[in-house]
């Protein structure tokens, strides 16, 4: 059985003259393995010569492509609640390593999305698709001509940025530390046309009970990624955010075969590679963004994990 996302991408590639995507992808029989969609996005870009293939696919997305989450999102009372519920359920309902959250900051509101796997395939296309799908969802919940205030993408600057300006209808900045869609806070309070609070609560409860979670470690991992891209990130802060005593959090993580420091180190390592590959930030700036006391500490940390210094890894 082929995942609907791969079928839609296959059709798009064929229309653009890229041939048979699924044959080129050479997947084994049965459901696509983890990472297949991400690999397919990268291959689709190469077959078609369209590096903005993630945006083109996002343009075709609808609520129905969310599968079992479509009714949940469509019945939410407000746009903000719809996006928040989607972000909460996505990592527990689909594979792919995508996390997101909504944050209000005074006169602005931020929709923050992250690909949290280390060395993810086709990150540029994933970033495009993630941001494009989020904007497309809001347009379906509000109006077709809605546009964000600004869009920040972690992908490298494309050869032709025009398709991005046309799609988003807003300023687009590339090579950023975080993947962010900036909106007006009033948007989050806007009602959803088909809102049904009773249905929404029932669906959320059902999906939460069936969701494929990965224990406390998964929740901690989400908070760590959020903390690394928006401020300080300590065990005490994460425990407080989760409403769990610090010692209890440490014991429960140990029972799951991990620790806070292991989760933090893995996230720092993955994000460091992302920033070195996708941005022009200096190593000192990356060290500071990841919360290291000084660049020398970051250098020792990265060298221990990668076997080479950050500067050597970046050159390679």
Distance between the amino and carboxyl termini: 39 Å
Number of helices: 17
The side-by-side strand order for the widest beta sheet comes to 1-2-5-3-4
Total number of beta strands: 5
Mean pLDDT: 87
The helix/strand class is alpha+beta
What fraction of the residues are assigned to beta strands by DSSP? 5-15%
How are helices and strands ordered from N to C? HHHHHHEEHEHEEHHHHHHHHH
| Cα-based radius of gyration, to the nearest Å | 20 Å
Roughly how much helix do the residues carry, as a percent range? Answer: 55-70%
| Contiguous uncertain segments of 5+ residues | none
Globular, elongated, flat, extended or rod-shaped: what is the shape?
Answer: globular
- Major sheet characteristics: 5 strands, mixed
